[in-house]
Amino acid sequence: MRYLKNLLSTKPTPLRTLDIAYIVTLLPLVLFIKLPVLFFLLLVLVLLLIGKKPTAVTLSAVALAGTAAIFFSLYGSFSFAGLSRLKLFVELMIYLLLMAIALQRLTREINFYLKISPLLLLATSLFFFHSLPMLVYVALEVFVLTTMLVWQVMQTDLYRSLRVSSALYVASLPIVILFFIFFPRISMEHARYGFKGDLMHRSGHDGLMHLDKNALLVPSQRIVMEVGFKEKIPSAGQLYFRGSVLYDKIDNIWRPLKTSRDAPSPDFSKGELISYKVTLYPTSKPWIYLLERPLSGPQKATLNSHLESKMSQPIKETMLYQAESLLKSSYKSPLPETLRQITLRYDAASDPRTQSLAHEIRIKSNDPRQKLEAVQSFFRAQKLTYTLKPKPFDLNNSTDSFLFEQKEGYCVHFAAAFTTLARMVGIPSRIVTGYRPDGSNSIQNYLIVRESDAHAWVEVYLDGRWHRVESTAFAAAIKDDTDQGSSMDMAAGEKSQWQQLNLYLHYIKYQIDTWILEYSSLSQKKLFSYLKTDTLFLLKFISSFLLLLALLILALYLLSRPKCRDRIQCMLKPLLDTLEKQGFSKQQGESLNRYFSRIEQAEQIPLSALNRLYHQLRYQKTVKQEFLRSFEEEVRRVKKTLK
Question: Which of 460, 483, 506 is where one domain is finished?
Answer without folding.
Answer: 483
